[in-house]
# Entry
Amino acid sequence: MTTTTLLHLDSSISLGDSVSRALTARFAAAWRARHGSAGRYVYRDLAAEPVAAIGAGYAMLGRRVERKGTIPASDIAALAEGPDEEHEWSLTHPLVDRLLAADTVLLGVPMYNLTVPAVFKAWIDRISFPGVYTDPATGESLLRRTRVVVAAARGGGYGPGTPREAFDFQTPYLRAYFARLGVPAEHLHIVPAELTRADDIPALAGLQPIAAKSLADAEAALDALATA
# Structure
């Protein structure tokens, strides 16, 4: 039996009323029902269990590795000099391995202050170690077959044609980041749910039908991706 792995990360600081958490939970439930015992499910709540911010030892070790060219991740520990660099790599290596082991990566990413939450950015900073996603033998991306699904919730409206379209630094950032990491564009699915605060922000009064449609569209898109 071939095992497939889902890595599920949430980053919303909200709990009971989080749209991104509800959407990722919906996807995860459908994915697990489809794959059954052949599916391995790995979960981390980045708000409840934050990733440590990177420090000077991370930067020093990263620069030393870059000067060596592309090397296997298993060889990096031997290049660490001193306890600070060793500690930084000990925090980094498990997260890199977890990402590389995933066939599908499910991310709950709400928009905070026009971009991604700080706890999610801390995860990105930690996993973005030089060279670890490149095959030393071929130069190909080790994430070229990885599928990334993002449930991107936004309190307002930032979609194409809206007055605030230019203020969306969430979606373009995620597309650019995962492309740089080596995830093919056809494997990256960013599913937005817009106007999630339409029920409680007076300035958004009257936009509830649009919000409801956006949420329904997001649910349908995630259902299709979870069972594809």
User: Anything to note?
Assistant: The domain at 4-53+98-227 is CATH 3.40.50.360 (Rossmann fold).
